[in-house]
């Protein structure tokens, strides 16, 4: 298995900026990829946002396993988070968020009311690791109805706020945190869902790991997608060879083009063509099923 890592020099700067921004808000809306909700989080966010209301959005939930979506919803609920399944590209689930924002911030709204402060908008920040769809979500959530409130004198110099109706203001800059790679399988899962730059990935190794995972957890999906008949003694490599034959991926001289078949399998997984798949499920003891 390859070593999947990132090397952004601006990690610390982004974290410091987020620490500053968090002081200004009531609510953190955290995006995770529904196909790998554990791996696509950064544990620092729980520390950074421990006194804030929290919503977790399972993005791309149309590509993940519906049964697993429910398990993850329960898992996050037990941790005290409000959770919504969404697809920020199509806008599915986005309408439900305003109601959840009011629920998540009920105590804050109640406190304001007791102090005689009525209708002060909830201030929210969208957070998550790179490539999880934060900007797409902000555009879908804010839509055409939003207005930038601009700089507020004194309090938030230089910060842009997006006004969402009367009830919510969204900090325009998404909070960025990087995933933690203490466990190599986290990097593997992030590589599978396309959260890591493909240029640094060994495509055939990644496809090998993916095929092995699918055969163990989602039997029949590869056979159906590529119209092949998998034999009990085949390993993942033999399956990829068969896929390349079935899809006529050949090199000159009639050798199976393993790289081309591997890329196709990864692309088909990412776009949901193989089926709705989740790479990890919550275990009761707090761990996750490894790939």
Descriptive report:
This protein has 2 domains: 11-176, Rossmann fold (3-Layer(aba) Sandwich); 202-270, Orthogonal Bundle (Conserved Hypothetical Protein Ylqf, Chain: A, domain 2). Helix content is 38%, strand content 13%. It has helices at 11-22, 44-48, 66-78, 97-104, 106-114, 134-142, 184-193, 203-217, 221-226, 236-246, 258-270, and strands spanning 27-33, 53-59, 82-85, 122-128, 147-148, 161-164, 168-171, 175-176. The radius of gyration is 22 Å and the shape is elongated.
Summarize the structure.
38% of the residues lie in helices and 13% in strands. The protein is of the alpha/beta class.
What CATH architecture of the largest domain would you give?
3-Layer(aba) Sandwich
Low-confidence stretches: 151-156
Please summarize the sheet with the most strands: 8 strands, mixed
Shape: elongated
CATH homologous superfamily designation of the largest domain:
P-loop containing nucleotide triphosphate hydrolases
Structural domain count: 2
End-to-end distance:
11 Å
Q: At the third CATH level, what is the topology name of the largest domain?
A: Rossmann fold
Q: What is the N-to-C succession of helices and strands?
A: HEHEHEHHEHEEEEHHHHH
- The first-level CATH class name of the largest domain: Alpha Beta
Calculate the mean pLDDT score and round it. 88
Strand residues, percent: 5-15%
Class by alpha and beta content: alpha/beta
* Counted beta strands: 8
Report the radius of gyration as a whole number of Å: 22 Å
């Amino acid at each position: 298995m390859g070593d999947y890592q990132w090397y952004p020099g601006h990690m610390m700067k982004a974290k410091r900026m987020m620490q500053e921004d968090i002081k200004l808000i009531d609510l953190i809306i955290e995006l995770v990829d529904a196909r790998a909700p554990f791996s696509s989080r950064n544990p620092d966010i729980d520390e950074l946002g421990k006194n804030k209301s929290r919503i977790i959005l399972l993005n791309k939930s149309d590509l993940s396993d519906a049964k697993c979506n429910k398990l993850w919803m329960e898992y996050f609920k037990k941790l005290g988070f409000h959770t919504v399944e969404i697809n920020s590209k199509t806008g599915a689930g986005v309408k439900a968020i305003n109601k959840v924002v009011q629920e998540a911030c009920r105590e804050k709204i109640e406190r304001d009311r007791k102090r005689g402060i009525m209708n002060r908008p909830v201030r929210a920040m969208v957070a998550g690791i790179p490539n999880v769809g934060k900007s797409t979500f902000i555009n879908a959530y804010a839509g055409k109805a939003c207005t930038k409130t601009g700089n507020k004198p004194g309090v938030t110099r230089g910060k842009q706020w997006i006004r969402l109706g009367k009830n919510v203001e969204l900090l325009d800059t998404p909070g960025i945190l990087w995933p933690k790679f203490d466990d190599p399988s986290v990097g593997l899962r992030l590589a599978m869902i396309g959260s890591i730059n493909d240029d640094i990935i060994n495509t055939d190794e990644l496809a090998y790991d993916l095929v092995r995972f699918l055969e163990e957890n989602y039997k029949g999906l590869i056979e159906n997608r590529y119209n092949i008949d998998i034999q009990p003694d085949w390993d993942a490599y033999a399956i990829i060879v068969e896929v390349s034959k079935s899809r006529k991926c050949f090199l000159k001289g009639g050798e199976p083009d393993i790289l081309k078949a591997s890329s196709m399998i990864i692309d088909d997984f990412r776009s949901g063509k193989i089926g709705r798949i989740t790479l990890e499920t919550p275990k009761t003891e707090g761990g996750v099923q490894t790939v």
